[in-house]
Design goal:
The protein is of the alpha/beta class and 349 residues long. The chain contains eleven helices and 14 strands. It has two domains: 4-119 and 309-341, NAD(P)-binding Rossmann-like Domain (Rossmann fold, 3-Layer(aba) Sandwich); 121-301, NAD(P)-binding Rossmann-like Domain (Rossmann fold), CATH 3.40.50.720.
Length: 349
């Protein structure tokens, strides 16, 4: 009996070897085909109609010939690819959200799309705290100064940061990442508020939920973004919202670049209304070389690396393997972007 083909297409972070190893005994069920894209040696980019992708449509078209199931990371699944991947039934993305997939087209073609939420929750939460502390204490700038031969220990009352122990931190969005950030901040002694109309806050949660965004902004010394990107969250932290923050506040964004108005942040940093800001994500990536943000000493940047830990890669492939197992056993997926497909698709037997 001919085995079904399964493509594992990884990269320099989540390798095909790691994907394959996570499958355990399932490897005996398939003929495994391996491929790789250049991420993150080459940054991800928009490919055709999908975002944050790596490789090419041509590579995917070739690799998917005769393939029934694919486990991928940043590889693009565009309409053009799907038109030529006639046998594809299931595409599992080792990411918190399948933005490198055309979900609408996948639904039209009857391809179920699974993903791996919370795989990098701890990594992103820890990076959020790292950026926050760096912004509060100017760690990157003073490190760079020492390397230039300057001993810049000349902090004044106006230039000194503040402690988290007595701060109020507001989280916009409260999912898996926000929960971990809140628990870490509790350890510092901070008071943590959250604004998320969809969150169900229980007695054991380390946050105080507020019903209005304005209340969170007016009470917070720090605001950290953790919302999903939707029509209602785009620019949720804009000029009007930043103006409501306490003078000398700090903002951090390790979620999505579209959640924050970076022009408004720049103006607030220049005026002194914001003490500092930090971000791992931007509306345009890579950040353009002429961006005025590069000239601001109180703006801390990292290049979309918050989720980049070994544990995040391992978790992603393990969740992907669990999804595949569930699909094969009973035709279900725990994390499916288009569950309507499962009701109409013939499951591999």
């Amino acid at each position: 009996m001919t085995q079904e083909k399964l493509l594992v297409i990884g990269d320099h972070f989540i390798s095909p070897r790691l994907m394959r190893a996570s499958l355990g005994a399932l490897v005996n069920r398939f003929e495994i085909v391996e491929a790789s894209t250049p991420f993150p040696i080459e940054p991800f980019r928009n490919i055709a109609e999908v975002r944050e992708a790596s490789g090419s449509e041509e590579q995917m078209i070739d690799a998917l010939q005769g393939v029934s199931i694919c486990i991928a990371h940043h590889a693009p699944l565009t309409q053009r690819v799907m038109e030529r991947a006639k046998g594809l039934k299931l595409f599992i993305v080792c990411r918190g959200g399948p933005v490198n997939v055309n979900i609408h087209a996948a639904t039209e073609y009857g391809i179920a799309i699974a993903y791996t939420p919370a795989r990098n929750a701890a990594a992103t939460a820890e990076h959020t705290i790292a950026l926050l502390l760096s912004a509060l204490r100017f760690i990157p700038q003073t490190d760079a100064a020492i390397r230039r031969g300057q001993w810049k220990g000349d902090y004044t009352w106006d230039t000194a940061g503040f402690e988290l122990e007595t701060a109020t931190v507001g989280l916009i969005g409260y999912g898996a990442i926000g929960n971990i950030v809140a628990r870490i901040l509790n350890g510092f002694g901070a008071t943590v508020l959250c604004y998320d109309p969809y969150a169900q806050i229980g007695d054991g949660d380390p946050v105080v939920q507020v019903n209005h965004l304005d209340e969170l902004l007016e009470r917070s010394n720090v605001v950290s973004l953790h919302a999903r990107e939707t029509a209602e969250t785009r620019n949720i932290l804009g000029a009007a919202q930043i103006a409501k923050l306490r003078p000398g506040a700090v903002v951090v964004n390790c979620a999505r670049g579209t959640l924050m108005d970076y022009d408004a942040v720049e103006q607030a940093l220049r005026s002194g209304h914001l003490f500092a800001a930090a971000a791992d994500v931007f509306p345009e990536e890579p950040l353009p070389s002429g961006s005025p943000l590069l000239q601001l000493p109180n703006f801390i940047m990292t290049p979309h690396i918050a989720g980049g830990t070994k544990q995040a890669a391992i978790k992603a492939t393990r969740i992907a393997a669990e999804e595949l197992q569930s699909y094969l056993q009973n035709g279900t997926l725990r994390y499916c972007a288009n569950p309507e497909v499962l009701a109409h698709r013939n499951i591999i037997k």
